[in-house]
Amino acid sequence: MNPNKLIAYRLTFTSPLHIDQRGTGKFETVDSYIQSDLLSAAILSAWAEMEPHHKEERFENPPFRLSSAFPYFGDLYFLPRPMGSRSLSLSKEQLSENKKLKKTQWLEKTLWEKVATHAENLTKTDELIFLTNGLAVAKTKLQQTLEHLHQIDNNYREMIEGLVLWKQEILTRLAMNRFTGSSAEGQLYDFARIWFAQQAGLYFLARFDNPQLHQSHFEAALSWLGDTGIGSDRSSGNGLFKWEKKDYHFDSQLDLKKAIALSVVIPDPIVDIQEGWLTEATYDFMRRRGWVAGTTWRKDGIRMFKEGSEFNRPLQGRVVKLGTHPQYFYPIYRDGRGFFVGGRQ
Q1: Is residue 63 one of the residues assigned to a domain?
Q2: Quick one: three-class SS letters along the chain?
C-alpha cells in the first residue's frame, strides 16, 4: 500500500441524513455512517444520470475502490476499531471501564494505528477520551483539535465529555397511500434521521484505476449526488452535502501484520477463498438487504464481511449481480470489492 495514493473525500451535510444499511424497512432505524457498497452504488447511479453510456460496464467493474464513509471532526479522522482488539482481557481494576470499551466502535486515526499494530491497547483508559457515539481519541489529540478550532476554554473537560458529533431526531409522520397519493388515516410511523454537529461529518477514502481518466468524472458524479442527496427521504431534502478533497496519509512507519478491511467485503470464490485463508483471521459478518431506490422491489440478501475485519492478506472481493429488476429490466449489483490497509499484498 502506498499512502500517497490515498485521497479522502470529506462530506459536510447541509441537511439531516437517513441511512438504513441493513435494509430493515423500519424507518425508526438509522445508521450513523455509510457503508462502501451503498456509497459506490449511489455514486455510480449519479454518474449514470450524467453519462448514461456504458453505465452497465461501470456497475460491473467500477473504475474505483472506496472505503466506507467514517466520522470526522475537525482534523480528527476516525476508523473502525480492528476486530482483533475486541477480545480484551481486563484486570479487576479495569472492569469498570468495560462498558466504555465495548461501546467503542471508532478510533481516531493515530490511536487506530497504535491499536492495529498492537503497540497500544484500549485498556489505557486514563489516556483516552470516550466521546458520545462510540468514538475514542487520545486526550492530547482532541485538545490540539479543539485549540485549532478555537473551541477550548476553561471548561475544557466539560466540553470534551459532552462533545457529540451527531444526534438522532425522531419525527412522527402520517403514512401515505402510494397508489392514490392520499394520507392513510390514523396510520402513523416514526422516522429517524441524524444531524451532524459543526466541523463534523463523514469521509471516505478512494483509489482509482486511472485517475487521469476517471477521477474528474467521479467527482462530478459526487457533486451531483451531493445536490440530490444520499440515503432515504431525499424528496424531503435529506442527505444533501458539500464535499472537499484532502490528502490522507497513514504513518510512514506503519507495519500491519494483518490486512484490515476499511470496506464491506464479498470474498471472491476463486481468488480469495483458498486453503487457510481464514487462519488467525478475526472478522464479523452482516447480512445486507434493502430495496431498489424508488421502488418496492426488495434486493436479494447477501452476507458480507464488516469493516475492521482482519485477514492475513487483503481480499480482492467482487461485484455481485443480484438479479434483474422485473419491472424496469435493468440489473442490480452489489459492490463487495475490498479496500484494505496492511497485510501481505
Answers
A1: yes
A2: CCHHHCEEEEEEECCCECCCCCCCCCCCCCCCCECHHHHHHHHHHHHHHHCCCCHHHHHHCCCEEECCEEEEECCEEEEECCHHHCCCCCCHHHHHHHHHHHHCCEEEHHHHHHHHCCCCCCCCHHHEEEECCCEEEEHHHHHHHHHHCCCCCCCHHHHHHCCCCEEEEEEEEEEECCCCCCEEEEEEEEEEEEEECCCEEEEEEEEECCHHHHHHHHHHHHHHHHHHCCCCCHHHCCCCEEEEEEECCCCCCCCCCCEEECCCECCCCCCCCCCCCCCCCECCEEEECCECCCCCCECCCEEEECCCCEECCCCCEEEEEEEECCCCCCEEEEEEECCEECCCC
Number of domains in the chain: 1
1-38 per-position pLDDT tens digit: 444 468 999 999 999 998 876 655 567 678 899 999 99
In this predicted structure, which of 112-121, 140-149, 291-300 has the lowest mean pLDDT?
291-300
Residue range(s) defining the domain that contains residue 53: 3-169+197-341
